[in-house]
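S1.2 Input.
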Amino acid sequence: MPHSKQAKKRMRQSDERRVRNKNARTRMKSSIKRALNDPKAGLGDAMKRIDKAAKGRAIHKNAAARYKSRIARAANRAAAAAGK
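S1.3 Output.
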């Protein structure tokens, strides 16, 4: 337990940030799963969620780039498979 007023505030702030970051990561991962199931419908939303999570620093910018690259490749593979 925090002893000082400052420590109590820092604990409160970190709790709020943890909830906010978890929400952003959860929404991002859910949209990625939707995009992988239906690339045409969910790709734009997934890209947006990834960018927002990186902007809010819920994930690192390089992690965001990696996620975006992987779902774009998956969407291209799905489109190529559908075209054959």
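S1.4 Remarks. DSSP finds three helices and no strands in the chain.
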